[in-house]
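sorry for the late reply, my laptop died twice this morning and i had to redo everyting from scratch. anyway the thing you sent over, i finally got around to it. pasting the sequence first so we're on the same page, its 132 residues, then the predicted structure underneath. double check i copied it right bc i was rushing
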Amino acid sequence: MIRICVLIAATNGLISMVMGAFGAHMLKLSVTPSQYDFFTSASNYQLWYSVCTVAIFGLIRTNISPSVENFLKSTCWLFQVGIILFSGGIYISILTDIKLLSFVIPTGGVALMLGWIVFILATLRKSERASK
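ok and here's the structure:
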């Protein structure tokens, strides 16, 4: 399960770089400045959350309790779902001009926020292994 999520995070990192380059070199002149800003934000968020996910999996590799590990895994999955819905929703909305998907974008933002809440809860949990 860890391997799959890290693979998804790495793939999201690659996609963010591709979409950022596409936006800067191909899309910029064919969309409004506002659309370009949204597209750039989507690419930036996707990259940062991919990096956060990989870093959190580095924490999982340390000597932590199973309950903290579960919180951290949940954080990573929420980040990945958030990236797909938030950034993916923006990409699709701008590239296809389909506005029906606009409800997906805030849902992705909520998943990202929930990921941070779960991460905070993970840091507040007492690690049984660390205290021994």
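The radius of gyration is 17 Å.
thats about all i looked at so far, will dig more tmrw
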